[in-house]
Amino acid sequence: MPATGAPVRVSAVSKHFDNGLQALSDVSLTVAAGEFVSLLGPSGCGKTTLLRIIAGLATPTSGSVGRPTGRHDMGFVFQEPTLMPWATALANVELPLKLAGLARSERRARAEDALAGVGLAGFEKSYPRELSGGMKMRVSIARALVTQPRLLLMDEPFAALDEISRHRLNLDLLALWQQRRFTAIFVTHSVFESVFLSQRIVIMGTRPGRIASELPVATSHARDEAFRTSADYVAICRLASAQLGQAMAA
Amino acid sequence: MSVKVVAPLVLGLLVLGLWEEAVRALAVPPYILPGPILIARTLVADWSTLAPSLWVTLSITLAALGAAVVVGGVLAVLFSLSRWVELSLFPYAVVLQVTPVVAIAPLIIVWANDVDLSLLICAWLVAFFPILSNTILGLRSVDRNLLSLFELYGAGRWRTLVYLRLPAALPYFLGGLRISGGLALIGAVVAEFVAGTGGNASGLAWRILEAGYQLKVPRMFAALALISATGIAIFLVLTLLSHLLLRRWHESALDGQE
Ligand SMILES: Nc1ncnc2c1ncn2[C@@H]1O[C@H](COP(=O)(O)OP(=O)(O)OP(=O)(O)O)[C@@H](O)[C@H]1O
Ligand SMILES: [Mg+2]
């Protein structure tokens, strides 16, 4: 059963925390089925908060969110790998299927596939501490993908990695997305990453967190390593930087 | 053998040698301070009296430790499942912990009306708190994002406990267990001192008291040596257990592996 993307609709969402801080103010955002959208913004502008609200892990103070309803329609990649240290890579990836009540043999097979899909075949029996930072992140992505979600939410998944691993994983992620066509919402504070990955960049401003502007990544260039040095890429990066600067100044 | 074993062993032998030399050179009478060789001889000669006592003390200690694991562990899980249970019960656990066991031992002996049982209760009282408080801490110290992940997949309270909270709490529980192992032994010995008498069979504390009355100081030392050896053995076994359970994944079990 090939996964097809699910649309997401965020309508007029505001979030006040108990301590009185307003993290989000009147955020509205529509993401089409199968679209790859980046949320770009400075630290503290409410990106994580918004992503958690979209996932249903936090409730908005006002406004509403439309998202796929099935439990296994969603995958979430946290900023840290967030693996269970006592479980092998395979067992970590199996977890969502185990919680879904799948039979052992089936979940094993699917978890092995998912690990192979992120280039980690042969590391099934490794414990997280035996893996490098980038490998742990891959396990985390495999876990998010193993349920074949229609919506993949990622919270700065590559922020802690070196540039080489980051570029590698960017390409892998794009390949997976092109193959599966899930809807992707990708949080980042890197202009370059957002331009390289997404079809549309949503730029957020701070105090309180809000959407400042949107920027389509309009290019006909193929998304490969060469894209990073293309004129389109440079132009769009410049635009995105300028809009980000505006959002932070406003 | 590693330095970890050899270094303390060499130091120990050195101290014992010096002790023996000093006792001989100064001609200290054995009823004041016996030398290690005499103590070892006494241990062998009195083995038929000491061995059953060792067994009594050991079995009370282990039973108390077992009860501490069960009660401490179950209470910790209950506390983690219900804030109300914790709020209402935890203060009493603290009260039990801060009350000196010597002070309540006489009461317990009166109430339990059976020496072995009261010794067991005293040892248990001393032993259970570290397991309880450590396990509670462990059950709470779960990565927030892992909790979110379980929530996202609709795991529910029970499966979150079994698949997430319990494994996360294991290193903490084992840390508490190592402390409790020593405390259970201390509790068993102290309580027997307070009781001042053995039950149907007497433990090592009673042997020390008895030898003291009879001024058999070498036997006091022999019994003392057995208590220390028991404590060390319990510690080593629990350390090994903890190492075996955690070695694949926990930071605490990694030293010397890199
Ligand atoms: N549980 C909470 N209680 C109170 N305030 C919070 C809570 N979580 C986040 N905040 C506040 O909300 C604001 C937005 O936080 P959020 O984590 O969403 O930012 P972010 O954009 O993800 O930042 P970063 O890029 O640094 O991860 C911050 O000012 C933060 O202090
Ligand atoms: Mg964040």
TrEMBL record, chain A:
Record-given protein name: NitT/TauT family transport system ATP-binding protein
GO molecular function, one term: ATP binding
Domain of life the protein comes from: Bacteria
Keywords of the record: ATP-binding, Nucleotide-binding, Transport
Record domain ABC transporter: where: 8-231
Family: Belongs to the ABC transporter superfamily.
UniProt-listed Gene3D superfamilies: P-loop containing nucleotide triphosphate hydrolases
UniProt xrefs under InterPro entries: AAA+_ATPase, ABC_transporter-like_ATP-bd, ABC_transporter-like_CS, ABC_transporter_ATP-bind, P-loop_NTPase
Pfam family, one: ABC_tran
Origin species: Enhydrobacter aerosaccus
PANTHER family: ALIPHATIC SULFONATES IMPORT ATP-BINDING PROTEIN SSUB 2 (PTHR42788:SF19), TAURINE IMPORT ATP-BINDING PROTEIN-RELATED (PTHR42788)
Automatic annotation (TrEMBL), chain B:
Main location per the UniProt record: membrane
Organism from which the protein derives: Enhydrobacter aerosaccus
Membrane topology: Multi-pass membrane protein
GO BP terms: transmembrane transport
Gene Ontology, cellular component aspect: plasma membrane
Stored PANTHER family: ABC TRANSPORTER PERMEASE PROTEIN, ALKANE SULFONATE ABC TRANSPORTER-RELATED, MEMBRANE SUBUNIT
Protein name: NitT/TauT family transport system permease protein
Domain ABC transmembrane type-1, residue spans: 54-245
Family: Belongs to the binding-protein-dependent transport system permease family.
Annotated InterPro entries: MetI-like (IPR000515), MetI-like_sf (IPR035906)
Compartment(s) of residence: Cell membrane
Keywords: Cell membrane, Membrane, Transmembrane, Transmembrane helix, Transport
Stretches that traverse the bilayer: 54-77, 89-111, 117-139, 221-246
